[in-house]
Amino acid sequence: MTIERVMGATRAAGFGDEVKRRIILGTYALSAGYYDAYYGSAQKVRTLVQRDFDAAFAKADVLISPTAPTTAFPLGEKLDDPLAMYLNDVATIPANLAGVPGLSLPGGLADEDGLPVGIQLLAPAREDARLYRVGAVLESLLEANWGGPLLAQAPDLAAAAAGTLETQEAKNEH
Questions:
Q1: At residue 119, what are phi and psi to the nearest 5 degrees?
Q2: What is the pLDDT of residues 79-121, one digit of tens each?
Q3: 90 within 8 A of 110, measured Cβ to Cβ
Q4: Which of 93, 96, 104 has the alpha carbon at shortest distance from 67?
């Protein structure tokens, strides 16, 4: 067994279609003809984003925001719509650019569609422990308010999640 076969098997089993698509896109953007055009510009943008986060963290211990601009998609609804998936990442991309740790927690179910809403917490670089502490406190407060984990408040979501996982596992086997 070669390392290439091990990596291939691991990536095929562990990465979904969306992750594979993003890896291919990133590889393409860094290929020979595009490296200089994109990488240098991206590094400049990254530095600006890092400076903005540094300024924000000079005023706050952690930052809180929605995880996404919409509620969660109904399970399986956007699997064939990569653009919708990319656009829904708009709130999480800055943390990745800046290299700061982020954590997402369920924040409740939206009144308009009954689907989960995510809360994103961000901490300064290398302050993962702070992020975990704040996340644990917020999670405990939310669960106390809900009377238990959010999934227990949404049995239809739990059943749908189990069905989707079984369907995805069946797809991965083929």
A1: -115, 125
A2: 888 888 889 999 999 999 999 999 999 999 999 888 899 999 9
A3: no
A4: 104
Give the largest CA-CA distance in the chain: 56
Whether this model's pTM surpasses 0.90: no
Cβ neighbours of residue 17 closer than 8 Å, sequence gap 6 or more: 79
Tokens standing for residue 158: 């739990």
Q: What is d(CA 109, CA 122) in angstroms, rounded to the nearest whole number? A: 22
- Dihedral (C-alpha) 94, 96, 101, 107: value to the nearest 10 degrees? 60
Query: Tokens representing 10?
Result: 């691991």
**Best CA proximity match to 121, nearest among 111, 129, 113:** 129
Matching residue, tokens 């086997």? 173
Checking if the pLDDT of 69 tops 70, the result is yes
Q: Where are the domains of the chain?
A: 62-173
